[in-house]
Write a structure and sequence with these properties.
The protein is an alpha+beta fold. Helix content is 32%, strand content 21%. The chain has helices spanning 4-18, 41-44, 123-127, 141-148, 155-160, 170-180, 193-218, 264-267, 276-282, 290-302; strands spanning 25-28, 34-37, 49-55, 58-63, 67-72, 77-82, 93-99, 102-108, 116-121, 251-255, 258-262. The chain is globular and about 60 Å long.
């Protein structure tokens, strides 16, 4: 799912292409895309783009007349900028938004169509789509600490909760926690003052680093290859690969549809975190340390003695 750095570069690229341009036409390929029709698509055609903004992980295009297009890309939704788009749709195409400068194409890979577009009128209607999280690159430390410790959750959950922090998801939360040297399962209300400050700095440094890196990579182009798995990430998507800080193999725990990637040496003092499903299956056989895990892996690879 595109997160804060990805959404920001989308917005910056779109600003250079559609700000002060008129939305000439909306062409919808998927009937599942538009979730609210007040106003209807044909009623906003011809209106000028007067602003672009981010609302959590949502992209908001503001049109004149206090009208807003609110896009939520979910996991597989992506934007593409085309000089012209044909009338023949591909399976992944959801909609096209035509401007004199080109067409903004919205696609979604896979069979589950979760990406959405809400057409709303008025700031009050727009506010209903705001999850309410604080902006991680703008908030002061005291506000960050207060919001993070208001409830007692794991750090992985707290960082990715859109009601707490705006725009952080599965990928960048892994990178933040690795930079902060904190366990994804540490509880927010149990953190010491120095750990809270480390986390606060890690949030800012990680997001700023990747935002600048993505900007440099684009060189004025449009972000056509937005992905949660990027070359140069420390732990996210790097299961069993060496941690860039200590060289230990990156670990992961899987829960529901998400996962947390971490370094046991840097973040959990050598302890392996229990994967809920697998640890219930293995019970007492679940390895507690990296050394125990590697020993068992070596034994399995060696096979039974002849």
């Amino acid at each position: 799912m595109p997160e804060l750095p990805d959404i920001v570069v989308y917005l910056e690229s779109l600003q250079a292409r559609v700000l002060h341009q008129r939305l000439e036409r909306i062409r919808v390929a998927s009937p599942f895309l538009i979730r609210s029709l007040s106003p209807r698509p044909e009623q906003v055609e011809g209106l000028q783009v007067v602003g672009l903004s981010r609302m959590g992980k949502r992209v908001v295009i503001e049109l004149e007349g206090n009208v807003f297009l609110v896009f939520h890309l979910m996991i597989a939704g992506r934007f593409h900028w085309k000089k012209k788009t044909s009338q023949s749709w591909r399976r992944s195409d959801l909609a096209a938004f035509d401007f004199s400068t080109g067409s903004l194409l919205l696609t979604e890979s896979g069979s589950k169509k979760r990406a959405s577009l809400h057409l709303v009128k008025g700031k009050e209607s727009l506010a209903k789509h705001d999850p309410g999280g604080i902006e991680p690159l703008e908030v002061e430390f005291d506000t960050f600490r207060r919001r993070l410790t208001l409830e007692n959750h794991t750090l992985k959950r707290s960082l990715t909760d859109p009601r707490i922090l705006s725009g952080i998801g599965n990928a960048y939360s892994d990178e933040i926690l690795h930079r902060a040297r904190l366990s994804p399962l540490a509880l927010s209300q149990k953190l010491k003052e120095d750990e809270l400050r480390r986390l606060y700095l890690a949030v800012r440094e990680t997001l700023e680093y990747w935002l600048n890196k993505l900007r440099d990579e684009l060189q004025g182009g449009f972000p056509e290859r937005v992905t949660a798995f990027r070359e140069g990430m420390a732990v996210h998507g790097r299961y069993r690969k060496p941690c860039p800080r200590c060289g230990s193999p990156v670990q992961r725990i899987v829960y529901v549809a998400n996962e947390a990637n971490y370094c046991s040496q840097c973040q959990t003092r050598g302890k392996l975190l229990a994967d809920r499903a697998l640890s219930r299956l293995l019970k007492r056989d679940w390895p507690r340390t990296l050394e125990e895990q590697e020993s068992r892996r070596a034994s399995l690879m060696a096979g039974p003695a002849g």
